[in-house]
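Please review this pair:
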Amino acid sequence: MARILLVDDEQGILNTLTILLKSEGFEPAAALGAEKALQILMEEEFDLMISDIRMAPMNGMELLRIVHETYPNMAVIMLTAYGQVDSAIEADQLGASAYVKKPFRTEELLMAIEKALDYRKLLSDQANNYNG
């Protein structure tokens, strides 16, 4: 099943997401903050990253920018408690697969995960067919 990196600066959110995703058969790993996420990404591969936008000192948009440049094939879902149109547009422009507002409905998040993973697989299959 898919490996998912969870990034937030609130341990409670990470715990909740970890429990939810494990119960759905995913393999989640939690990073408390963007800097920790970058450390983990240097050591492990993931299919998807779910990141909060509002974090400090590095925010989720900065993390998204780095991840999209360094790991272009990894799908990314951005979470925020602040449903601002500007940040949704910026997240989309930086390569995010989806943008989900907190508090999220479980079904909404799971649907975003499935869509992001399906799209990632489609791109991977196309690249393999092109190279093969």
Q: What stands out?
A: Residues 84 and 101 are 9 Å apart (CA to CA). The longest helix spans residues 106-131.
